Amino acid sequence: MPSVVESTRPLPVYFIGHAGVGLLFDESPRNRIVQDNLRAIGEEIRGITPRPKAVLTFSGHFEAGEVHGPGVIEVNVKKETYIMYDFVNDFHDSKPLVYEYEWPHADAPELAAEVYRHLVRSGIKAKRVERGVDHGVWAPFKLMFPPEAPLDLPVVQVSTFHGYDLASQIRLGEAVASLRNEGYLIVASGMAVHSFPSIAEIRDAASDEERERARAGVLAESRAFDTHLRAAVAERDAAARAGALLRLESLPEFRRSHPTVEHLTPLLVAAGAAGNAEDVRPLGVDVVEPGMSYLNVRFT
């Protein structure tokens, strides 16, 4: 049975560790844990009563285009959105079937336009765009909401800000926080640790001994940053949480864990949208590996 979350108060805010498209085909024990974690969150979302009117997503693969200049957010208002095969890796030789994946879903351009107007009224510079659904949304949602238990809500996609101003991402979350009272369930999708360069260091080591040494070093860095991040996120007071999250940037593990910040910024948006939380709860079994952390969090 789904874990029912009553929404007589503002709807909860979720952050999910979305992994990559390998989430859907990797048979490793680690990936099975990640899959089970996400399936449980999908079951919980299906149990929310009364039902939300839409899922409002922020993804590590939807950052506003640099062409718009700083401080601009994009809202996807396209009707009948397609899914994007926007993978980092080229799977045409190794896993060509990933380009045949489908994810049936509903859009709501009229609700997207409503969110756009809300952002503008809130003082956020916003532009309407037409694009597909990136794999930071459809890949985990395909697992969370399978054909036998589909998502019965439309998806509204909003970008994060382009660039490294982390405080702006928290302010974006604060700007959409009131939408939780209007039927929007906020689901932010990213990674608590996301470092392809660190993974490459392990892969490219000159010997098995150096590879094991590199692996141990990267895992220690990833675990250290994940621990600091969890402590910051757990703050229930909004101002304390924001301050703790922004101080993470001074850690020596920060740039090693996030050489680029687009996978961290959705978590900052979620933290901003959560406001003063009654409860901040990590969900599922913790999975941290060298260069990656699959943290999931619910704010209520």
Q: What secondary-structure arrangement, pairings included, does this model have?
A:
Layout: E1 13-17, H1 29-46, E2 54-59, E3 72-76, H2 109-121, E4 125-129, H3 135-144, E5 155-157, H4 166-176, E6 184-190, E7 193-194, H5 196-203, H6 208-233, H7 238-247, H8 254-257, H9 265-274, E8 280-282, E9 288-289, E10 292-293, E11 297-299
Parallel strand pairs: 1-6, 2-5, 2-6, 3-4
Antiparallel strand pairs: 1-11, 7-10, 8-11, 9-10
Helix pairs in contact: 1-3, 4-9, 5-6, 6-7, 7-9
Give the key terms.
single chain; six-stranded mixed β-sheet; alpha/beta; 300 residues
Task: Report what the structure shows.
37% of the residues lie in helices and 14% in strands. It has helices at 29-46, 109-121, 135-144, 166-176, 196-203, 208-233, 238-247, 254-257, 265-274; strands spanning 13-17, 54-59, 72-76, 125-129, 155-157, 184-190, 193-194, 280-282, 288-289, 292-293, 297-299. The strands form 3 sheets. It has a 6-stranded mixed β-sheet, with helices on one face. Helix 6 (208-233) runs antiparallel to helix 7. The chain starts with 12 loop residues before the first strand and ends with a strand.
